[in-house]
Design brief:
Length: 462
């Protein structure tokens, strides 16, 4: 018993592909069977190593581990040819040398007659020895199969084409390779996008003729944009790995993806273990799901708040590296992250917020400084400098008390002290609670930044 993910490496790993991979992975885990990764790289012109890397990197980021593979179809040409030769020798496949022009003309006539365009079988009995190779599809009867999402699907054989299984250059085509691989790799359940549902009856005919057992199928509806149109860039990123760059947690994305097209009552948040336990192919929605960026943001924030601190810090590391933040000089990261997680919208946001605690800066946001660092703020900043230099036990509570005593002695509100202090501390006025922030910035740095702010005001006044 196995399931598989079989992407073609012809671009980035699409968010819809990632969801298909997740469903197939969940099925394997739930059924305690193996999950196979197969890279379908028979299209030599469009397949790239960068795309293979993106698939491997994307699955790795999502922690969708595969038990077998990655297998590459390009390594299996001999096997495909063996099957093609077998079909030829049994008279179940034949060479066709119809010209492109003939095929096009035939198609035009069929369309004009409102017939479904298909090959007319002209070369079926010609006994040619070169050209493309077509599968001899049965003319009568029908193909029926049960799909876990769509229910019973039936199609008359008269509707199906004699499909090309080998191109004139000898390259096998998708419908042939997929059948050979799914059979050889013992795939019991094929979970894939419903853009392939029209291929399934053709593939079933191949299974039948080859005498192979037919796997189960689940064709998953597409993901649409929020307005019901085909998902495109204007609805959100299509590339899975952009979500890592934008600061999403993989756990949050998996949770979002599993809910996109599958449900278990009203439940929104699922741990991976719960997903595995509750996942049923039958509960995949029949209609396409709409991508909803706000909901994804909400789930991400919910994970940022609630996930274990070690997991959170682990994922944050990637973003801190990207910003080249040196963690050697500053607070203990886990403690800081515990403070920041409540108000961080994403990991990118959190990593940017970390910067002021580890890196010094040499100027203030000009716009804010000109509004906030007024002459009267200078006195407040000087008070802060002298009071805070006396604080020995550098805690948020003691910092808070120092601010309060300045407010009292000057008869001013907290904001009048808090605002210039916040700008002095952060450089851009962005920080959470001021006393906690100052605690994490540390005493020496806080005092230096206050001096810098006073200096800034002095320079302006001269
Ligand atoms: N390689 C195909 C694709 O990326 C998937 C084939 C399949 O799952 O059967 O669309």
């Amino acid at each position: 018993m196995k399931s598989r993910f079989a992407p073609s490496p012809t671009g980035f790993l699409h968010i819809g592909g990632a969801r298909t991979a997740l469903f197939a992975w969940l099925w394997a885990k739930k059924n305690k069977s193996n999950f196979v990764l197969r890279i379908e790289d028979t299209d030599k012109e469009r397949s790239t190593q960068a795309s293979v890397d993106a698939i491997l990197d994307g699955l790795d980021w999502l922690c969708l581990d595969y038990d077998e593979g990655p297998f590459f179809q390009s390594d299996r040409y001999d096997r495909y040819n063996e099957v093609i030769q077998d079909l030829l020798s049994k008279g179940q496949a034949y060479y066709c040398d119809c010209s492109k022009e003939r095929l096009e003309k035939m198609r035009e006539i069929q369309i004009a007659k409102k017939e479904k365009p298909k090959y007319d079988g002209c070369c079926r009995h010609k006994s040619l020895k070169s050209g493309v190779i077509r599968f001899l599809n049965p003319d009568t009867g029908s193909v029926s199969f049960y799909d876990y999402v769509k229910g019973k699907v039936s199609i008359a054989n008269s509707e199906l084409d004699d499909l090309v299984i080998s191109r004139s250059d000898g390259a096998p085509t998708y419908n042939l390779t997929v059948v050979v691989d799914d059979h050889d790799m013992n795939i019991e359940c094929i979970i894939r996008g419903d853009d392939h549902i029209n291929n399934t009856p053709k593939q079933i005919n191949l299974y039948r003729v080859l005498g192979w057992s037919i796997p189960k199928f689940a064709h998953v509806p597409m993901i649409l944009g929020s307005d019901g149109s085909r998902l495109s860039k204007r609805h959100g990123a299509l590339n899975l790995l952009s979500y890592r760059e934008e600061g999403f947690l993989p756990e949050a994305l998996l949770n979002y993806l599993v809910r996109l097209g599958w449900s278990n009552g009203d439940q929104e948040i699922f741990s991976i273990d719960e997903m595995i336990e509750l996942f049923e192919l039958e509960n995949i929605n029949k209609s396409p799901a709409s991508f909803n960026q706000e909901k994804l943001d909400w789930i991400n924030q919910s994970y940022i708040k609630n996930i274990s601190i070690n997991q959170l810090v682990g994922h944050l590391g990637w973003h801190l590296n990207r910003l080249e933040i040196n963690l050697e000089n500053g607070p203990i990261l886990n403690d800081l992250v515990e403070f920041l997680r409540e108000r961080s919208k994403s990991l990118v946001d959190m990593a940017k917020s970390c910067e002021m605690f580890y890196e010094d800066f040499d100027g203030f946001d000009e716009n804010q400084a000109s509004k906030t660092f007024k002459t009267n703020s200078k006195e407040v900043l000087e008070d802060l400098l002298s009071q805070l230099s006396l604080v020995n036990d550098w805690s948020a509570r003691n910092i808070h008390l120092a601010i309060e005593s300045i407010c009292e002695s000057r008869g001013i509100g907290f904001g009048k002290v808090g605002q210039p202090f916040r700008l002095a501390l952060s450089g851009d006025g962005k920080s959470g609670s001021i006393d906690k922030s100052a605690q994490f910035v540390g005493k020496e740095r806080t005092l230096n930044r206050l001096k810098m702010a006073i200096n800034w005001i002095n320079i302006q006044n001269n």
